[in-house]
Please model this.
Amino acid sequence: MRAVTPRTRPRSAGTLPPPETTPKGADVTREKLLQATHELLFERSGEEPSVADICERADVRVAMVSYCFGGKAQLLEALVDRAMSQMMSEQQQLIDLGLPPEEALARQVRASVYAFVRFPYMSELSERLVVGERAGTRLAETFVTPTVAWYRELIDAGVEQGVFRPVDPMFLLFSIVGMCEFLFSAKSWVQDSGAALDDALVERFAAHTVDLLLRGMRPATD
Amino acid sequence: MRAVTPRTRPRSAGTLPPPETTPKGADVTREKLLQATHELLFERSGEEPSVADICERADVRVAMVSYCFGGKAQLLEALVDRAMSQMMSEQQQLIDLGLPPEEALARQVRASVYAFVRFPYMSELSERLVVGERAGTRLAETFVTPTVAWYRELIDAGVEQGVFRPVDPMFLLFSIVGMCEFLFSAKSWVQDSGAALDDALVERFAAHTVDLLLRGMRPATD
Model:
């Protein structure tokens, strides 16, 4: 795989969003394993690390993956869940702020672009996990269904205030995730064009996407 | 992998777009191999068929893959090239028709959605091939660079006629391909929501995407 220009990404994987309650006892080990897996996936452009690699990075015994999660697949699922619940809680905060619908949509689109910077391995990983029926249903329950509901509420509010036209909330979700994701799946296209997928380009793309979406959502004038 | 609802796709893989000149001699075998590979990738949701499977379907001797292409990787590359040149020639036709920029963009977006119906395996396949440096450069030369140039010309014409605002043509390409592709990579989301990814849904999504894009491209009013 092509090396990504170093400026593309934050210097390090950073720390995972914390769990809802402060970990104690076995949960401390659980956290170490999640953080180690996040770092390795980040550093290796999504290539799945072995249990041995994960445990070495986490500095815990190899048996701990089974003990804490039941197995590697469940550890990976828990990592997807962690990232997803972080995104869900940020969406909820946008609602709690009581922002005007256009501002809430702009922030949501921007957050979607940057989610791919923070968790560059996430789409590929959740796609692999969706192959298992149970994980697919989990993703639907933890992310797709509540996010479609969030968009529906936002669109309804915007339509009522005369700032949005009515669109299908599931299609809007697809459009936004698809647009935001593509910059990262097309990184070789960016590089072939002679540009660098650096912070400035990501920011320009985020602004482009917000602009296209918000204008695209304006009420019908014809 | 989840079974795709039968109505999702055309009943059969259909025939590949023909080469520029009528095949003769060894080129007939070449065509049979390309068509067989297309059919198998289509039928198996993108899973790569073996050389033996391809030759059995094409009804040619196994040595023919090496003889005609040099190897399976080159056969797959030639298939990507064929689909890409078909798309490029359709783009060219849109220019030749001399349509108003908005109509040309609408047709291009619609064609992009339906390209994923005709070649459901294409993104994954070209992504795998891009891992090889040479194939990445080929994709840039045969698709990315000319398509960005096409969008630049279209945007310039639209800006001049006062129907588009200026946007980065590479970003517009990313937005369009990303939006069009996502419906198909998120097919499990569609199914989890209880909907079927059938012809009617693809058509509704195409209309949604054209609408969002064309409105998003309107000249700035603020």
